Predict the structure.
Amino acid sequence: MINLLMLVPLLAGLSAFFIADDGRRRILLIASAALHLSLTICVIAARPVIVPGAWFALDPLGLLFLGVTSLLFLGASIYAVKYLSLEKRDPGEDSDEGFIFNNEPETVFTGCLLLFLAAMTAVTASRHLGILWAAVEATTLLSAPLIYFHRHKRSLEATWKYLLICSVGIAMALMGNLFLGAAGLRSGASLDLESLLSKAASLDQAWLKAAFLFLFVGYGTKMGLAPFHTWLPDAHSESPAVVSALLSGALLNCAFLGILRVAQVCAAAGLAGFTGGILILFGILSLMTAAFFILAQKDYKRMLAYSSIEHMGILSLGTGLGGGAVYGALLNAVSHSLTKAGLFFISGLILAAYKTKNIPDVKGLIRRAPAAGILWLAGFFLITGTPPSGIFLGKFMILKTAVSGGHYAAAAAFLFFLAVVFAGMGRIFLEMTLGEAPALKSGEKPFEASRQLLLPAACFFACAIALGLYMPAWLNEIITGARNLIGGAI
Amino acid sequence: MTTPAELIIVAVILLNLSLAATGSLAGCIRLAAAQGVIAALLPLLAGCGVPVGTLAFCGAVILLKGAVFPWLLTRARIKANVRKDAEPVIGYPASIILCLGAFAASSWLGARLPLPETARVAWIVPASLSTIFTGFLLLTTRAKAITQVLGYLVIENGIYIFGLALFVEQPLMVEMAILLDVFVAVFVMGITIFHISREFDHIDTAELSALRDWEPGPDSSGGIRRDEV
């Protein structure tokens, strides 16, 4: 079953390179996404037993992130198909500098999109840390062509920074993996998660700490934790909306999973205090960086990117606090993925309607494109954690644990930066949505958002709201299982 | 006591210094390749018996690092038609001093992270850490996109030295997957360099600076204010 989950997007992706007919290739994209999601649902329903020593298996933690990735990808593929057909009709004029550019061949884009899904599936299912590393690096390499869809200077710059910073970052994670191997050399533990966990008590502590640091920096770079986040705003602002949505909603989670796996080992070795301190520190640092940059932001896609950094900070903070906060962090991860993907989808519509990413030039969205405007506002309330939403619940649990655990400074910083982010984003969203829309230039047609582009965002937002009101038993079971794996039960 | 493996470690450290001191781009490509090949010999010398799998793996590494990567990078260099020197941001003496300092720091760190007795070669940790640092030095102080890829490769060499001298017993599949990733990474970077040279007419990464959160003021050189365009 798990092999099938990886094979479907792999084979579909490889064949997409050779299908010349646009219609057929697009059907293939949606069909494989739908098949992947149905397979994922089957796996969640069946709950396969984990065979010890297997390289690929799905524990609750993997299941949670696989489910989110798969759902997100289906929404993204529905959006992408419409987006690609629109892009084909009128080739790109740059929104900021006005030059004409070409697009990447659609075969390459679709192929890489599907292979990217295969790599992310492999990340969620790996039980061997070496395989996990290889899969995370593969996601970087496969998503680089996606960022360079619009072939112009700025997207090229973003692609280069992304490739280089993430590759070097992930090289650090490889070093961390080797340190982990050195820690287990004496007790004969390999990099297999099972063997590491069972021999955790006899691992060499100095090497284990060094390993955690390297792995944290490595996967933290990919996850976008400050101060290793520098590639993130560039890549998110220059890539097509559908790619930004996948990067933010699915890829960052995958990198986070890498950190969670090591944290799992460290917790089993009795180093939860050490890892917790680092996770809390960098979580707060990311919150601070994001709050600072959101306040003065002039580009709405970059604003969303910094909001992702903020949420990655929240995930790191929640995991570091332990206990009930881990549950909150995981719930936050799910809700953030859904909400942020929806917001990026809408940002693509705004870019199409106004031809600019500059915030002061976007006014009166609710008049020019009412449906997009309403969703954009709804997304704002959801992402900042206004009840009812899964993000609100998640943040509340984290705050509660921080206060009851005596982390008063962390709790105060958390609340303060959340307030700053709320104020900063509130100003931007309200400025963009309300007011008088700029008059249409002569010959410009009034903007009409296609339903196919609105639908995925609307569905994701509905899910995010639903998570705040009602927690299905099966999801609760998965999140609780995942929390217990990271040691949140202590 | 000097074993061949220890000689290799010494050679790797000396190559680090020459990488920091070499100004010619072609020379840097050759030095990084030489370091990769020499490091790839390590697992063959470190143990007593060499299984066929390890032999094949080392062969693949030598082929990649000694032939494929230099060929890819040289091709990128010629296609991009770049000037021959590496154009460091800091001077060569400073680079060498930083490199030596890094070696001293790595030796200190290596003493604090004792390897389990199963490890067979002395000075592995310092050599590996100082190679990684040299890679970072190339990455940050040389302006060309190609030297940045070289920096990535040297970092990878450093990691490889540490890895293979210790764990010859890792499953071959895992090592192959990692090697494949590194190969594809260099390949994709090579393609990107080609695009950069076509789009910008140069591969000077210092000028890849259009994306930022704040526009530079009108008096500072280089930046174009977005709202003026």
Notes: The mean pLDDT of chain A is 88. The CA atoms of residues 473 and 479 of chain A lie 10 Å apart. The two ends of chain A are 33 Å apart (CA to CA). Residues 281-439+446-490 of chain A form one domain.
